[in-house]
């Protein structure tokens, strides 16, 4: 990866753009602030609320756990980078064995390339002519750059082909098999898949290298339905291989795997028969890097296979009680601008007062406003104006995007790094 790009992150100046950081840090570089190893909870020179922090220990645990999982099950791993859009985390994921990074949009690919990511799986059909020409330029300039994207329509193939005329290297595509009627993108039937594959074969600019999809979109998803869809995906790869549709490919890509059903992906992909080329069994789960306290804590496959280990929620949002207008209400100085709320409300974990933390008994989040978080408090709940409240969040994908510079803190509050995001 590009060392100079990461060095540039450390040289960026701390200022008003980055919320939650100590006010007296203005003018320091991020590297200088990191070297000071400040504490989240220090008084003078401390951080301001609200502030989102990542647990250093839990982050490392999650990275290592998924590396072990992928190796154990013979899977290549391209975690979805749209979760964090943080090149520092991309680098750590790759250091922990990731094949590459999955992304969704051309802008995200530009970020990844700026920081030297060599392998990108784009989980979308790419039909923007300007973006396609830029990708063609990246492929021409860097023989080591591997880029794969979806194709899910004949029209899309035609648009890709038109934009890529004259490109020096063909663009690798995989046919996206949709998860059924009412699901998201992807061809709905095997006949549609064959038609798209035929369209790819008629071009000189595209090369068919595999099949892919997203199993969590299966309507009414349960273990049986998800497995049935994954078996369809594998059967499509086998059919295409027997028909010689992967001629010219170096390997056959078979890819699936969000953060809810990767156990089913591992089981079905383990049964892929021998094909005419090596098979890249590519898992794309992304939310694991921070995990969460509600949505994925409830749905993670590790709940079904606890012997494989368990992910740990790494985010904690700290906010301060700014109002206690009645015995059953309190308000924090954080809201929709700071906390994910699209799937579940934040959950209250701890109350911090005078340097001491205790469980937040009898306190729960009831609503969010733009800049206030509403708490419902039971009789006798010990909470007062000025307390710091530690909250768990749901859905990493809408937590990272609200913070441009995120402190990484050890268990005692010592900040050892800052994660820069690019949304």
UniProtKB/TrEMBL annotation:
Belongs to the DSD1 family. Keywords: Lyase. One of its GO terms (molecular function) is lyase activity. SMART domains: D-ser_dehydrat. Residues 314-410 form the D-serine dehydratase-like domain. It comes from Streptomyces alanosinicus. Coiled coil: none annotated. InterPro entries: Ala_racemase_N, D-amino_acid_metab_enzyme, D-ser_dehydrat-like_dom, D-ser_dehydrat-like_sf, PLP-binding_barrel. This is Amino acid deaminase. Signal peptide: none annotated.
């Amino acid at each position: 990866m590009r060392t100079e790009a990461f060095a540039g992150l450390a040289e960026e100046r701390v200022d008003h753009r980055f919320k939650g950081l100590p006010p007296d840090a203005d003018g320091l570089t991020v590297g200088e602030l990191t070297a000071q190893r400040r504490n989240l909870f220090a008084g003078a020179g401390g951080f301001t609320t609200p502030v989102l922090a990542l647990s250093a220990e839990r982050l490392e645990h999650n990275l290592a756990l998924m590396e072990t999982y992928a190796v154990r099950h013979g899977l290549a791993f391209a975690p979805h980078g749209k979760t964090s859009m943080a090149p520092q985390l991309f680098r750590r994921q790759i250091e922990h064995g990731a094949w590459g990074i999955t992304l969704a949009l051309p802008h995200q690919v530009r970020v990844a390339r700026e920081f030297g990511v060599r392998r990108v799986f784009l989980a979308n059909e790419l039909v923007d002519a300007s973006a396609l020409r830029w990708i063609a330029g990246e492929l021409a300039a860097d023989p080591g750059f591997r880029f794969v994207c979806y194709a899910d329509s004949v029209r899309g193939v035609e648009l890709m082909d038109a934009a890529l005329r004259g490109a020096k290297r063909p663009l690798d595509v995989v046919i996206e098999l949709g998860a059924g009627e009412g699901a998201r993108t992807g061809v709905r039937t095997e006949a549609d898949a064959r038609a798209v594959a035929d369209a790819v074969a008629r071009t000189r600019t595209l090369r068919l290298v595999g099949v892919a999809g997203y199993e969590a979109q299966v309507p009414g998803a349960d273990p049986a339905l998800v497995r049935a869809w994954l078996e369809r995906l594998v059967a499509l790869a086998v059919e295409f291989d027997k028909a010689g549709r992967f001629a010219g490919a170096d390997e056959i890509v078979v890819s699936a795997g969000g953060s809810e059903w990767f156990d089913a992906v591992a089981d079905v992909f383990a049964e892929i028969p021998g094909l005419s080329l090596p098979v890249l069994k590519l898992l794309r789960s992304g939310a694991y890097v921070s995990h969460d306290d509600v949505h994925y804590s409830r749905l993670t496959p590790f709940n079904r296979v606890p012997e494989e280990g368990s992910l740990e929620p790494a985010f904690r949002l700290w906010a301060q009680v700014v109002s206690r207008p009645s015995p059953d209400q309190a308000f924090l100085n954080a809201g929709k601008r700071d906390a994910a709320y699209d799937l579940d409300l934040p959950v209250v974990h701890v109350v911090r007062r005078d340097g001491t933390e205790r469980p937040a008994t009898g306190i729960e989040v009831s609503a969010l406003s733009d800049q206030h978080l509403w708490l419902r408090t039971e009789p006798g709940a010990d909470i007062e104006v000025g307390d710091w409240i530690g909250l768990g969040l749901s859905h990493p994908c809408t937590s990272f995007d609200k913070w441009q510079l995120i402190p990484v803190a050890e268990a005692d509050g010592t900040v050892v790094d800052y994660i820069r995001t690019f949304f």
